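# step 3/5: fold
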Amino acid sequence: MPQIIDGKMVSAMIKDELKAQVTALKNEQGISICLAVIQVGNDPASTVYVGNKKKACAYIGIDSLSYELPEETTQAELVSLIRELNQKEEVTGILVQLPLPDHIEEDEIIRAIDPQKDVDGFHPQSVGALCIGQPGFISCTPAGIIQLLKRSGITIAGKECVIVGRSNIVGKPMALLLLRENATVTVAHSKTVNLQEITRRADILVVAVGRPRMITREYVKEGAVVIDVGIHRNEAGKLCGDVDYEDVAPVCSAITPVPGGVGPMTIAMLLYNCVEAGKAGRR
């Protein structure tokens, strides 16, 4: 049986560590941390994610401000709100829940956020800092995967890692973080020729391709570690990932389940970024 990499357990550990830090910051230095969360429209999945983020903030002792804007909010109105929050000293982090309605340009909204409050790690300045190894906020899902591997006792240095997916939010920053950990990294994607041949080289296979149960045992080397970033609902309405878990689990040494694997880590690392933003903003 493979090792089941338990994201719920690891994220709970991180949240408890952050809770202790937040308490110490308040009691010893008088530092309060506040996350402003903006949601445009009422997409049901976004509403669930925002609710989970607010609950997690409350658990570790971070204040949260909620801005629930109507679907017809204009780009100019959203940018104006972000600029107002950029100026508020008590707001240490700003998060705009994606996706946004079609009439709003996501890239412009991300750029409007003060890089010092960019707790999602999406601003070009944050991405550039990651590229050249400078301090900065790191996209939460890739950062969470690194923590999952390390806290599950999985060595990264010297390993051959393959990432399936090249998005700005997961695939690209994931490659940079694995390089930082001294892995040898290949980024594959939907246009990659001989994909199975490439993924079967991986000691650590990270799948963020956005296709339900695409990765079967034919893609996986015996004894590999498999990290599944995808989340979908199958024909029966049950949650599943980009990896066919039942097919792949018998051939790998460790695997993340869906749900309960990578998902909880994204919010844990968002909280980590919020705490770091609070500390940096009061130095």
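# step 4/5: annotate
Residues 7-29 form the longest helix (23 residues).
# step 5/5: archive (pending)
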